[in-house]
Amino acid sequence: MTAAEASSLSGASFSAGTEQANSGGSNTCVYTDSQTGTLFEVTVAIASDAGTAQAEWAQEETQAQNQLVARAFASGFHVTINVSDFSLTGADRAAVGTGTGSFNGVTIAGIAVYALKGPIFFTFSDLRLNSPAAGATAMQGQAATVLTRLP
What is the pLDDT along the chain (151 residues), one digit of tens a residue? Predict the structure, then answer.
């Protein structure tokens, strides 16, 4: 996902993201906008085959949620993320998760989409301070666009 696409979804203005390798072989690109207090992440993991990817779905989804919470919330702060499956043409599985919370007078809102196509798992998330996160419809639409780019 490009910086322009992430900016369009989040309403922030992102320049190039920062790439990082994660444990387990996934990679994440992090976009930040300190002016708006917005964080946007894209993570991709590729399993050895589709069956392995299906078996690791819950693990990858949990890891993505944990990364999101670790970046957004202070130690000891609890946030509940509500996740529900949705139908995404071309995907083997797809889900959207939302969460909100507040800490020391600051409201934090987030949304993430998770999808699996064959051996490829991807997720992207939008976190914002003191404003609503991107809408589910827009995030799901972007997931459909991302799927068209996968082999």
Answer: 999 999 999 999 999 999 999 887 889 999 999 888 899 999 999 999 999 998 888 877 777 667 666 665 566 566 777 889 999 999 999 999 898 887 777 788 889 999 999 999 999 999 998 899 999 999 999 999 999 999 9
Dihedral over alpha carbons 131, 93, 63, 41 (to 10 degrees): -40
For residue 104, the domain's CATH number is: 3.40.1000
Q: How far apart are CA 116 and CA 132, in angstroms?
A: 26
What angle separates helix 3-10 from helix 136-149, to the nearest 10 degrees?
Answer: 160
Q: What is the distance between the alpha carbons of residues 49 and 55, in angstroms, rounded to a whole number?
A: 10
Instruction: Domain count for the chain, please give it.
Output: 1
On the 0-12 / 13-18 / 19+ scale of CB atoms within 10 A, 12 is buried
Q: For the whole prediction, is pTM greater than 0.85? A: yes
What is the domain range of residue 69? Answer: 3-149
CB distance 61 to 93 below 8 Å: no
